[in-house]
Amino acid sequence: MYYDPIKKSLGDVFNRTPLLRRLFYQLLDLLLLRTWHVHRELRKWGKGRADEALNILDAGSGYGQYTYWLSGQSPKWEILAVDVKDEQVADSNRFFRQIGRTNAQFAVQDLVLYQQPNSFDLALSVDVMEHILEDVEVFRNIHASLKDGGMLLISTPSDQGGSDVHSDGETSFIEEHVRDGYNIHEIQQKLRTAGFERIEAQYSYGEPGQVSWRLSMKYPILMLGYSKWFFLLLPFYYLLTFPLCLVLNWFDANTKHDSGTGLIVKAWK
């Protein structure tokens, strides 16, 4: 299934007013399990640093929900959010101007080529690397763009069932993915090749998270891919499934997993 047309349709709905976009971000924060894991790690990184003037790179910003969250943590944090999609970048810049968030800026950039040496204290890459074939080049560019001691935070599918691939004969649930998922040792080796020395990796989307993902993401996406009329049914669907998904997300984000369909990776320069 091609996910981009569905994402565009959702963007068209929620970009109509700043209030709708804020609501969209809040819904994504609650429904997307990866957000629970990413926010947890960002809180650890930012603890006690709200008064510091820090520079952050959102590498592959998408809808801009992580830039929105980070820009609200401290007015002293300056965020540069880059993405290859002109329309999303323009929409995000317009929204952030409308709400007066002056510490965030969006720009069109290709991560395979983009490099800004020794500029950032933190780089964030959430569900981006599974879309880019030249991953080591991207890791090298981010490594060069970080200041000494800067951290890269990655969320990406694993090879333990990421992209809903569980055997050699299956293909990714999302057609835009160039890889089904990373082996936990493979991604650490690629980061070392790019210059990172200290690396920590752990699984996300354990058993609770996999159930939540199917209920909150896979089944609704399949329905929307079949017909846009399912937009009308989504509120009723989530009215039934939302409470269970919240409980499952909490358990997944607060439990260590021996295996999982996602990875959370931190690497320091």
Automatic annotation (TrEMBL):
Superkingdom of the source species: Bacteria
Pfam family, one: Methyltransf_12
Alphabetic keyword roster: Membrane, Methyltransferase, Transferase, Transmembrane, Transmembrane helix
Annotated InterPro entries: Methyltransf_12 (IPR013217), SAM-dependent_MTases_sf (IPR029063)
Residue spans crossing the bilayer: 229-251
Membrane recorded as keyword: yes
One of the record's GO molecular function terms: methyltransferase activity
One example of a Gene Ontology biological process annotation: methylation
Domain Methyltransferase type residue range list: 57-152
Name of this protein: Methyltransferase type 11
Native source organism of the sequence: Hymenobacter amundsenii
